[in-house]
Amino acid sequence: MAQFRFLVGVVLLLAALILDESRTCTAQVPNTAAAAVKCSRKHSAVLTEFGGVGDGVTSNTKAFKAAIDHLSTTASDGGAQLIVPPGKWLTGTFNLISHFTLFLHKDAVILGSQQASDYPILEPLPSYGVDKNFSAGRYSSLIMGTNLTDVVITGNNGTIDGQGAGWWTKYRAGELKAVRPLMIEILFSTDIQIFNLTLLNSPSWFVHPVYSSNIIIQGLTILAPVDTPNTDGIDPDSCNNTRIEDNFIVSGDDCIAIKSGFDQYGIKMGIPSEHIIIRRLTCISPDSATIALGSELSGGIKDVRAEDVTSLHTQAAIRVKTAAGRGGFVQDIFTRRFVLKTIRYVFRVNGMYKSHAEGFDPNAMTKLGSINCRDMVAENVTTAAQIETLPENNFKGICMSNTTMTLFPLLNITYNVVSGLKSNNIDCPYPEDKLPIEDVPLKTCSL
Ligand SMILES: *[C@@H]1O[C@H](CO)[C@@H](O)[C@H](O)[C@H]1NC(C)=O
Ligand SMILES: *[C@@H]1O[C@H](CO)[C@@H](O)[C@H](O)[C@H]1NC(C)=O
Ligand SMILES: *[C@@H]1O[C@H](CO)[C@@H](O)[C@H](O)[C@H]1NC(C)=O
Ligand SMILES: *[C@@H]1O[C@H](CO)[C@@H](O)[C@H](O)[C@H]1NC(C)=O
Ligand SMILES: *[C@@H]1O[C@H](CO)[C@@H](O)[C@H](O)[C@H]1NC(C)=O
Ligand SMILES: *[C@@H]1O[C@H](CO)[C@@H](O)[C@H](O)[C@H]1NC(C)=O
Ligand SMILES: *[C@@H]1O[C@H](CO)[C@@H](O)[C@H](O)[C@H]1NC(C)=O
Ligand SMILES: *[C@@H]1O[C@H](CO)[C@@H](O)[C@H](O)[C@H]1NC(C)=O
After folding, report:
1. Which of 164, 222, 250, 300 is the S-S candidate for 329 at Cβ 3.0 to 4.6 Å?
2. What is the span of the domain harbouring residue 132?
3. Ligand 6 atom with least separation from CA of 355
4. How far is the CA of 414 from the centre of ligand 2 (A)?
């Protein structure tokens, strides 16, 4: 029987989580070992063939560019792969190409340069416009791809370390004139697979597919200190048909944030994020959400399915962030089988979320409707649901069923439910149909 139940009491002990972010690198292995990687790409190159030096000090920006330029002449004929062998490969921005695999050996570490000059400044994204606080524009992301099809970034759990600490410090000190680099950004592209990697310390968001479709993001370990600014894990933004599974994320911001552009720019561009699957996610984010919708949602968010999610020490399990001026919509959101431990808000809607683009339309309201959460077990919850919306938001309601929460502290619980929560005899739906992206296999590589 469907139910919506709050149990007071019961404090559970949480197993201590020991995260080991340190890593050692073995000595360089001859290129022949790496060259034996099979990714069903006809053409192959190793970074060292193009002057790459994996000493952690020498810049490899030119080597990456030379290798990828070389491979671009043959990639359309059966595909190409670039192998990053064991070593520490310092680099600034480089751009990917179509029909291409970037493959990191398990002991390969790509290190993001800490020099701002290694990240050329770009125009703002069309669905975001100029950020008035960062009017110089935005730094290129470390690894970028634009207008591509069939791109794979993988490796036997090799590492990309954004070395973000310097950027976080400058950001906090208000010293930056442009938006910080992201780690991986893929724009206007289709058939993207990013899997089996460890991503550390991005200067800002880690993985940002935008205006793209047919995306698989799988088996990533994403780690940033939990007090770092805007280190979102995975942010599909105006993306369609996206499958995000088996990821482990510890972050200073949202583990996954689904977006679709900002205020009038996002409204004008009008590309929603839709048909998004999130499954088998583990998230730790003490100051942010496991799954956030927004705050940039001006193109709309529709048909998100999240299941088998575990969240520990996290501020909110599901959070909608919007404000008058955002426009767009959030509808057909489905979650099931969430296990939550030490959560401030299981469900949270913020209808007055801070900043705006210059010249936004204050009458552009977000339509909220059909958010369905079921089969959730939450322990050590401070507030079950906080829903803060403006009357104009046209809120169509939330469905929560078979959800059990244990609240903490035992007394003086803040429980602010304004509207939309039904309590009896409901059985919230979860779609039974399969999305096309669910049947797409990974383009795995073998050594
Ligand atoms: C329960 O949550 C509170 C914060 O709300 C935290 O201080 C406490 O350590 C948690 N208890 C357990 C057993 O995890
Ligand atoms: C991507 O394609 C658009 C439209 O075709 C073009 O204007 C733009 O220059 C391309 N960008 C890159 C980086 O290829
Ligand atoms: C991921 O990497 C591990 C080695 O670390 C390897 O055994 C496994 O096959 C890889 N998985 C995929 C899907 O490539
Ligand atoms: C990848 O490495 C991380 C960090 O060492 C580890 O926690 C994770 O289990 C590894 N993943 C795979 C698929 O081997
Ligand atoms: C998303 O892809 C589906 C096909 O899988 C298509 O019907 C739909 O129009 C696409 N949505 C957008 C916003 O492009
Ligand atoms: C700009 O900075 C101010 C002050 O730090 C902050 O309140 C505001 O939210 C920021 N605006 C944007 C668009 O980031
Ligand atoms: C209720 O949720 C629990 C925990 O997720 C699950 O095991 C159980 O099957 C659900 N019951 C129903 C009737 O769906
Ligand atoms: C709860 O509120 C009561 C009365 O206001 C107060 O005496 C008590 O100390 C509070 N308990 C906690 C845990 O904050």
Report:
1. 300
2. 2-253
3. 9
4. 50
